[in-house]
Amino acid sequence: QVQLVESGGGLVQAGGSLRLSCAASRSIFSIYAMGWYRQAPGKQRELVAAFNSGSITNYADSVKGRFTISRDNAKNTVYLHMNSLKPEDTAVYYCNAEVLGIGRNYDYWGQGTQVTVSS
User: Fold this and answer.
1) Which of 4, 30, 93, 96 could link 110 by a cystine bridge, Cβ 3.0 to 4.6 Å?
2) Three-state DSSP class for residue 16
3) Do the beta carbons of residue 1 and residue 65 sit within 8 Å?
4) Three-state DSSP state, 24
């Protein structure tokens, strides 16, 4: 199992920046993929940014050039650096970890952190 604890959300004006953190309860080397998703009111949860064990990263088109996912292996922590924030970035942001199992993979989620961007 993996416990994920997010932090860093808050209220920011459009054009501002925030950094989200996701601390994992085990070494992220043992996790196949980690990433950030978000869910706005009335919308489905969507991928924001993620990387896998091969360090291949993937970003949603809407955040390319503005958001960067990074990790600190020593701290078992993944970050989402968000710049040039827009009101449409307002959502609850969730950290996700995918762990390989026998015959299936397992998804773990954090509790979510609210990001609100005012215009």
Assistant:
1) 4
2) coil
3) no
4) strand
